[in-house]
Amino acid sequence: MSRVYLIALYRSVGAGTAIGIMEALAILAAEPMVRVPFVTSIVLAMALPDSEPAQPRAIIGGHMLSCLGGFMALYTVGPGETSSAIAVGLATLLMMATRTLHPPAGIDAFLVASYGLTIDWVFNPVLIGAVLLTGFALAWRWGERRMFSAPDRAAAPQLWSTERIRKLKQLWRAHP
Q1: pLDDT tens digits for 64-85?
Q2: CA 6 – CA 65 distance, rounded (Å)
Q3: Furthest-apart CA pair in the chain: how many Å?
Q4: The pTM is what?
Q5: In this predicted model, what pLDDT tens digit does every residue of 87-103 receive, in sequence order?
Q6: CB-based burial label for 1 (10 Å; 0-12, 13-18, 19+)
Q7: 41: helix, strand or coil
Q8: How many helices (H) and strands (E) in the chain?
Q9: Nearest-angstrom CA–CA distance, 42 and 22
Q10: Are 42 and 19 in contact (CB under 8 A)?
């Protein structure tokens, strides 16, 4: 099996493990799974660990700013569909303006504005979950770096761009 596929498998196991931990913690906290906004964040952080949206600043900042956008819309318009649309737009603007874009975090603004969630929800499960996810992703990434070489990791499925392809070629030339 190619090293690239082993890295993809390693990342997939990490995502499944993180989801299992999230489910267990939600059960322990008696938090309905529908209100735990981390499934897509976990997939992004584990599958594309080197991407900007998967960095700690984006995960934690994105979720917090998305909640802020949700509360801004909720307190201005009230709960409902219009409020949730405005909230997601505000969350996107806030994340882009602060360079903390984490697309999965948009669900926080949607949930706050749609359901009129309280500020307590921001701390538990959002802040606690974002910090736990970041810690897990960093630990899993550390394990990946210990098990696989830089060229192999760079060749693993990523967000491809011309710049990324150029860097990959340089890595392969440096490590034949």
Answers
A1: 999 999 999 999 999 999 999 9
A2: 35
A3: 60
A4: 0.86
A5: 999 999 999 999 999 99
A6: exposed
A7: helix
A8: 9, 0
A9: 9
A10: yes
